[in-house]
Amino acid sequence: MNWRILLFLFVFNFTYSQNFGLVDKKVKSYPEFEDVLNDLSIRIKNDFLSDEERVRAIFTWIATNIKYDVEKVGPFVPKMEWIVYSSKSNYIWERNRRDLRKVKKALKYGKGTCTEYSLIFRELCRKMEIPVNVIKGYTKTGIKDIGDKDRYYKDHAWNVVQIRGEWKIVDVTWAAGYFDIETNKFISAFDDFYFFTDPDEFITSHFPIQEKWQLNSKKVTKASFFATPIFFPDYYKNNFKLSVSDIGVLKTGADSKKIIISFDSLPKDKKIYYVFAGDKYVNHSRINRTSDNKFQLSIKYNEHRNSHLILFSEKDPILGFKIKPE
């Protein structure tokens, strides 16, 4: 490839990534809108030219202006709804009317659940004629979910959006913040990890009902999805790599009462800490280099400790496991 083309691609990609910062800055300075759907869509159309930037603007505005309504249905738990209809066309009409009503209510009060987040995102994308879908499925939000393969209810909704013929994944709900179990409140904390997330990383926490929306290189089953550990965003952001990534339940040795966790690679100058649920303090974990060039953590365990284990890199969680003593 000609070096000039390579240089162009480098500059283009650098500018492309930098533009998201500029998009975020501009969107976060937007004033309040009287008619949000129409006024916001017009503003975004005028401010940004490419579909990528417009989608990013939609994503950032929703994530920073809509709070999760924990009082409505509880943290990430769906509510059953019914639609009465006389024909297929009538069903579509009634559903669209219901969805638009939810969107307007969420925009009016500035809060909603994953349903409202995904519907607002869809509505704004549609106004800009950008192909978009709402995806429903299962999520793993905590260590308690590991092994829960028989769960019957779909607890989450997110979006896919088409950019230049390629479907991209977006989860505005998880990008907006998180639920604090100690205060029982939603904490706003913008996280763009959930914008155009790598499908192979996204599938570790989100499992769509329809297999085609996994969008990843290797399809997974519902059972294998729930069998894996909890992968927090900082695991991917810092380039950790487990030697075995599909086992979320770790067994202690019958004699040693130790938990062994191996990594193929670790980021430089990153210490790893661990804590069992209920512990008052985190513990520093020593890392040993093995003969086969892997990195191994050895953690002591006894029956008095909780079965939920979380690993941290500095102060950020990276992995969650269930422990099963033998």
From TrEMBL:
GO terms for cellular component: cytoplasm. Residues 106-174 form the Transglutaminase-like domain. SUPFAM superfamilies: Cysteine proteinases. This is Transglutaminase-like domain-containing protein. InterPro entries: CAP/Cytokinesis_protein, Papain-like_cys_pep_sf, Transglutaminase-like. It comes from the Bacteria. PANTHER family: CYTOKINESIS PROTEIN 3.
